[in-house]
Design goal:
Elements: H1 2-5, H2 16-34, H3 54-85, H4 88-115, H5 118-135, H6 145-170, H7 180-209, H8 211-217
Helix pairs in contact: 3-4, 3-7, 3-8, 4-6, 5-6, 7-8
Length: 224
């Protein structure tokens, strides 16, 4: 900016001060012209560098399938509640029951994940996520479907409150320090990709095979 603001006077210098100004401007102009431009090339081989670790590779693809199934289950539950009750209030209350445990229990769940074996916690949360759809409408309230839907939504929220922080911190244990940033980026991309494809796939399947079939099919995401 300084070089751009200096005025260039090509007339012969009349005093030492003016000569110094012209010399300084010419030196700045020469330095700017001689400075090479460096462009950073993108190395696409490093885009998926974290996948070279076997544990993270298995975790990545397994969680991708699991998260897609989780979003399919959420859409199926919401659609069933809305078609059963035809009430926007009931639909909002179902989502509130699923979100409130995440709000209240995420911090204690993070402390639990730091002090205990993350792998065992994930096995417990994934097992609970597998059993909940199997018990839907076949649990202790088979003749009270609204109450069963609310209870299932609340339990899903409790499971996710322990699953999310544990899963996020587990990424650190499966990659090296050099690939950690890439692993975090891939993990975030996987989560957001599941949020896109899971509800979209659930909507198509609900239209063709029904809500109950979609809810039951999400159990098979754990057989991997």
């Amino acid at each position: 900016m300084l070089c751009a603001r200096l005025r260039i006077d090509e007339r012969p210098a009349t005093n030492d001060k003016h000569a110094g100004t012209v010399d300084r401007d010419r030196s700045c102009r020469d330095a700017g012209a001689a400075a090479p431009r460096h462009y950073r090339r993108i190395d696409w081989r490093k885009t998926f560098s974290a996948l070279r670790h076997r544990n993270f590779r298995l975790f990545f693809w397994g969680q991708l399938v699991s998260l897609i199934g989780t979003w399919m289950q959420t859409v199926a539950l919401n659609w069933l509640v809305y078609t059963t009750t035809n009430s926007a209030l009931a639909l909002g209350f179902i989502n509130f029951l699923q979100a409130i445990p995440i709000t209240l229990l995420t911090l204690p769940a993070g402390v639990l994940a730091d002090r205990h074996n993350k792998r065992n916690i994930l096995i417990a949360t994934q097992t609970a996520s597998m059993l909940l759809p199997s018990c839907w409408r076949h649990g202790p309230f088979p003749y009270r479907p609204v109450l069963a839907d609310r209870l299932m939504s609340l339990l899903f929220g409790v499971v996710n409150a322990f699953d999310i922080p544990t899963r996020q911190s587990f990424v650190v244990d499966m990659t090296s320090r050099d690939d950690l940033m890439n692993a975090i980026a891939l993990n975030s991309s996987m989560f957001n990709g599941a949020r896109v494809f899971g509800p979209a796939l659930a909507g198509v399947l609900i239209a063709y095979i029904g809500t109950a079939a979609v809810s039951s099919s999400t159990v098979f995401r754990f057989w991997r």
